[in-house]
Amino acid sequence: MPRTPDTHEDDLGTIPPPGPVFHVEQALLGALLLEPQRVSDVTGIASDAFSTAVHAALFAAIRSLPAPDPLQHTKNTKWLDEVLAAAREQARGLSASYLHTLIQVCPWPRHAPAYARMIEAEHSRRRLCAAAQRLTQTSRDTSLPQRVAATLTEADALATVADDIAARFPPHSGSLPRTPAPSPATPHNEEAADEERLLLATATAHPSSVEQMRWLTPDDFTHPLHAGLWQCLITLTRRGTPVDPVTVLWEAQHRGLLGAGAEPRELLDLLARPVGSPESWGELILQRSLLQIAHHIGRRIEAFTEDPATTPYQLVVGSRRALADLSAVRTRWQHATSPATEGRPAPSRAAATPRAGPPRATAPPTARISR
Question: Helix-strand-coil percent breakdown of the chain, rounded to 5?
Fold first, then answer.
C-alpha cells in the first residue's frame, strides 16, 4: 500500500534555503556576542534591518544592554544569559544553543562593520522593493477616490527611499542595472478604446482644441490606430489645413493607417460621432496612461530589487531613471488639470457610447477597428 505523503514534510521541502544575508546576519550577531564592545562600530542599521524576527530580537537585545567587561565576559556567560532573556521577550523560541551557534559561525569578529554594511545594503533592497510594490498596487486600486494623487504620493515616497539609499552608498562605475525590464502590461480595455474613439471624433469636430492639448501625446493611447489618428489631427492643425473626417482620412492614408481592418468607411463613421469636449476625454486618456506608466515603473524597480547581482547604487540609478519617465507624464498631467481648465465638466461614463443617430441593433462598425 503506497504511503500517504506527509503534508508537513511536503511543506518543509518547499521552504527555500536561506539567502546570503541570513549568513551575514549570523556572522554579525556572532561577532557581537563574542566581543560585545564592537557594537559601537556597527552603524547604519537597526533591528528592522534584519531578515528574521529572531535576529532582529537578538540585535535589539544586544544594543539595549551595556557591554560587559571584556575580561569578565571571557570567564562567564552572565551577559549572554541577559541577552537571551531580553531577546526571548520578542522571540520566545530562541535558545541558548543558537547563541553558541552564532558565535561559532562568525569568521572574524573584527569584520563586524563590514557585515553590518552588507545587512544595510540588503535592507535597502527590501525597502525599495516594498516601496515599488506599494506604487504598483496603488496604481491599480480602483477603490481610491483620488487614484492619481495617491499614485503620485507613492512615487514620491519611492523616490525618497532611492535618495536615502544614494546618501548611504556612494556612486561607482558601471552603475546601470543589468536586469531586463519586464514587458509592459497592455491588456485590451474596451473602456479605454471607447474614450479614445470619442476623443478622436470630438477633436475632429472641434479642431481648435487640439493645439491646446499638447499635454496629450500619441503614446498615451492604448490602440496603435487611435494613436496614429491623434497624430494625424496634430499634424493637420499645425499645418493650418482644414480638419474634418475626410481630411483626417486622407492624412491617415498617407501615414499607412488604412488596411488591417481599418476601412475608410469605418474610419469616417468613427470620426463623425462627437460627444462632450475633447479636453475631458483627453484627461481620461492621460490619467489612464499615467497610472499604467506608474504600474510599469513599479514592476520595473521591483525587478531590479529581485536581482541579487544589482548593487545598492545600481538600484538608485535604475530607480531614478525609471521615475524620470513618470515625471514627464506627471508634468503633462499638471498642465492638463491646471486651474485654467478646472471649470470644465468631466464626461460621464454614460457618454462613452455615441448617441447620435437612431438606435442600432448591432454594435457600430467603429467597434471592430479598435480590436
Answer: 65, 0, 35
Residues facing residue 259 across a β-bridge: 262
φ, ψ (nearest 5 deg) of residue 223: -115, 130
Sign of the Cα pseudo-torsion (276, 277, 281, 284, in order): negative
- With both helix axes pointing from N to C terminus, report the angle between 78-88 and 53-64 in degrees, rounded to the nearest 10: 130
**Contact between 269 and 366 (Cβ < 8 Å):** yes
Task: Give the amino acid at 113.
Answer: P
Q: pTM (2 decimals)? A: 0.81
What's 337's DSSP letter? T
Q: Within 10 A of 63 (CB to CB), how many other CB atoms are there?
A: 15
CA distance 337 to 117: 45
Contact 324, 158 (CB under 8 A): no
The span from the CA of 245 to the CA of 222, in Å, is: 21
Distance of alpha carbon 136 from alpha carbon 113, whole angstroms = 35
Measure the CA–CA gap between 2 and 19, rounded to whole angstroms.
35
Alpha carbon of 341 to those of 67, 233, 280, 315: distances in Å? 65, 21, 9, 38
- pLDDT of 371 reads 36
The size of the chain, in residues, is 371
Using alpha carbons, select from 315, 358, 4 the residue that is nearest to residue 179. Answer: 315
In whole angstroms, how far apart are CA 114 and each of 28, 31, 42, 54, 329? 9, 11, 9, 21, 41
> 268, 286, 273, 263: which is closest to 338 by C-alpha?
286
Question: pLDDT tens-digit profile of 27-65?
Answer: 999 999 999 999 999 999 999 999 999 999 999 999 999
Summarised one tens digit per residue, pLDDT across range 98-148 is 999 999 999 999 999 999 999 999 999 999 999 999 999 999 999 999 999
Got the DSSP string for 71-82? Answer: HHHTT--HHHHH
158-216 tens-digit pLDDT: 999 999 999 999 877 666 676 776 766 665 688 999 999 999 999 999 999 999 999 99
Instruction: Identify whether the C-beta of residue 139 lies closer than 8 Å to the C-beta of residue 294.
Output: yes
